[in-house]
Write the structure tokens for this entry.
Amino acid sequence: MERYKDLGLKLTPQRLAILDYLDGNKSHPSAEDIYRSISRRFPTMSFATVYNTLEALKRNRWILELTIDPARKRFDPNTKPHHHLICVRCKSIVDLHQDYRVDIPKEKRNGFELIGNHIEFYGVCPKCKTLKEVMKMAVFKCSKCGATKEGRCKPQKCPKCGEKRTMQKS
Ligand code: ZN
Ligand code: MN
């Protein structure tokens, strides 16, 4: 509790709940995620409370704001240098603890003094990958007329010639 003094915010039970929620959280939540979770316990809490708490934490460098998700800002209580991997489907973000030695030659730095970098990787997470495979459509072909139909399960009869039990997976 003592260490929260320098935040410049009045520490209400709601704010403490927000700090608790963020402590050690590796899901990179958005302000909306935090609001949804905390308002279960504090139904009268406003979104502004979440917002200004996050702003104060950010200002004091207790959390980092990530812009990797184009839809909404995400927050990271882990302020040590690391990189991220985002799933383009479900927008889950995971940490990447690896040192990528990328360097910009001095003549290309535009006079900047470099203090760090953040590398973002885009991909499809294992959960979404499995889901995609499950949802994958199969093509069925009529052994009589050759008509094809896409679907997840085998059609009883051919949609073209009407023949029963002739549709085979092709
Ligand atoms: Zn995903
Ligand atoms: Mn992170």
User: Anything to note?
Assistant: Residues 136-169 form one domain. The first helix runs from residue 13 to 22. The beta strands are 64-66, 74-76, 83-87, 93-96, 120-123, 138-142, 148-151, 167-169.
